[in-house]
């Protein structure tokens, strides 16, 4: 009996159209228009639905960009965003952008569920909730919701209204520096509101980062969720040799 390589899984039609498109894209500079749905349908001899599905995949992956009323174009390369325990403001500056923050909402509320557990507060303890749109060179990059203990950071809401950097406020006003953090990354489809704020389509893939940071005494500082457009950013983490510093516990479910 001869044992050959496993038979290839059956490839959906739209996938071969996608591969054909990738070949075209590979030869074109960013900003070049790609053939219209109608032209592609005629060229590859398939249905318009199939072509549309291939194009949508490439848009979601950040290889193509759709401009309302103008057509579909080859996208700019993604922005590489290092994963470090720095502030958004410092990180943006380090890769050559001017950072900004638009405060969408800032309020005092009561800790519940995961927020209480993460900040090690009793359920119902007062917390501040900040919702900010993060900007780089005035372009919306991420949506960020931060929770911090109100008892620990009195007056934070007013200060957050006046400063675009939360970490600067924590350092300068409260003498608190996050020195240790756990960050998780998951994906989720953009909600209609996220899509509007980040100039993308509802349902587009988002990279969702959750940061749980601690000060030098091991006390929680913040619990933050940030949504980034999956088609525009590549996160890079530098991995160093593990020197017996312990393992990261799986994230508990609250
Ligand atoms: C990043 C982190 C957040 C942190 C923020 C502070 O975006 N993911 O957890 O709160 O930086 O940035 P800034 O000081 O610019 O407000």
Describe this structure in words.
The strands form 3 sheets. This protein has a 6-stranded antiparallel beta sheet. The model has no long low-confidence stretch (mean pLDDT 91). It has helices spanning 13-26, 37-44, 48-60, 88-94, 113-118, 156-162, 166-174, 192-197; strands at residues 64-67, 71-74, 79-82, 99-110, 126-136, 139-149, 180-189, 205-214, 220-229, 233-236. 28% of the residues lie in helices and 31% in strands. It is built from 8 helices and 10 strands. The chain has 2 domains: 13-74, Orthogonal Bundle (Arc Repressor Mutant, subunit A), CATH 1.10.10; 79-236, Chorismate lyase-like (Chorismate lyase, 3-Layer(aba) Sandwich). Strand 8 and strand 9 form a beta hairpin. Helix 1 (13-26) packs across helix 3 and helix 2 crosses helix 3 (48-60). By secondary structure, the protein is an alpha+beta fold. Bound molecules: 2-amino-2-deoxy-6-O-phosphono-alpha-D-glucopyranose. 2-amino-2-deoxy-6-O-phosphono-alpha-D-glucopyranose binds at residues 87-89, 99, 101, 144, 146, 165-168, 209, 211, 222, 224, 226. Residues 87-89, 99, 101, 144, 146, 165-168, 209, 211, 222, 224, 226 line the site of 2-amino-2-deoxy-6-O-phosphono-alpha-D-glucopyranose.
Oligomer kind: single chain
Uncertain runs are none
Rounded mean pLDDT is 91
Q: Please give the CATH class of the largest domain.
A: Alpha Beta
Helix/strand class: alpha+beta
How far apart are the termini?
A: 54 Å
């Amino acid at each position: 009996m001869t044992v050959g390589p496993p038979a290839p899984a059956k490839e959906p039609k739209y996938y071969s159209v996608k591969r054909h498109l990738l070949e075209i894209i590979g030869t074109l500079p960013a900003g070049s228009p790609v053939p219209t749905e109608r032209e592609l349908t005629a060229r590859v001899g398939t249905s318009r639905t199939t072509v549309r599905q291939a194009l949508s995949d490439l848009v979601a992956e950040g290889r193509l960009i759709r401009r309302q009323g103008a057509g579909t174009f080859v996208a700019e390369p993604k922005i590489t965003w290092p994963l470090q325990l720095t502030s958004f403001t410092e990180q943006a500056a380090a890769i050559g952008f001017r950072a900004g923050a638009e405060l969408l909402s800032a309020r005092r509320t009561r800790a519940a569920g995961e927020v209480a557990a993460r900040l090690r507060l009793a359920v119902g303890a007062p917390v501040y909730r900040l919702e900010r749109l993060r900007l780089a060179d005035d372009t919306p990059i991420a949506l960020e919701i931060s929770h911090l203990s109100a008892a620990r950071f009195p007056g934070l809401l007013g200060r957050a209204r006046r400063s675009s950097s939360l970490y600067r406020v924590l350092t300068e006003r409260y003498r608190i520096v996050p020195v240790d953090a756990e960050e998780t990354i998951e994906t989720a489809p953009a909600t209609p509101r996220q899509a509007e704020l980040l100039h993308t389509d509802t349902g587009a893939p988002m990279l969702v980062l959750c940061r749980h940071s601690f000060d030098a005494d091991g006390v929680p500082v913040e619990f933050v969720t940030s949504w980034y457009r999956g088609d525009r950013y590549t996160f890079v983490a530098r991995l160093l040799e593990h020197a017996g510093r312990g393992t990261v516990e799986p994230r508990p479910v609250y």
